[in-house]
Amino acid sequence: MKKLAMTAGFALAMGMSAAAMAHPTNSGYVTDSEDTVWRNSFGECWHTGFWSKDDATVEGCDGYVASTTAAPAPAPAPAPAPMPAAMTDKKFAVFFDFDSAVVDSVSDIATYIKGMSSVSSVRMVGNADPIGSSAYNDALSKRRAENVAAALRAQGVSGNVMTVDYLGETAPVAQCSGRGAALIACLRADRRVDVQITGK
Fold first, then answer.
1. What sections of the protein cross the membrane (predicted)?
2. Domain extent at residue 125
3. Which of 60, 120, 142, 149 could cysteine-pair with 198, CB 3.0–4.6 Å?
């Protein structure tokens, strides 16, 4: 009777094993209906009678460890496009001695122009103080503007972007009174060439 019970128990266990045979996913291992591999009390995976070394593809069973492939690094974000340079206007003033059209220096103006990425225009406007006749002051202010343009060309600034104009004594900025040397000194601000530079 005892032998019969053992035989029945063994048959039942075999039946359970047969019912819990490996899924195609976990071929060679005993699994339940959810494809979970059965393990013994030592944590070892149960093999079917058809198990071979080729079936050792279940992570944690028979020393198999799934390979870990690092995800590729994301491509770097493209650099933002540079903002286009804005057009700017810059003004300089070149001052003159009384009744003179001699240019002292325009190196600071030339340096600024050469540092620009592009130059649209360089406009010279000559001015004179009100001492003397209007006709004389017109001619003097024109010579002053032309001499500044020539000095800039000598410093390497292209003449193609230059224009020359003159206003004579019609655009004063000095507020002066008196006579003689004091008046002449006060009117220095009117003896000038305004240089307006437009570009990037």
1. none
2. 88-199
3. 120
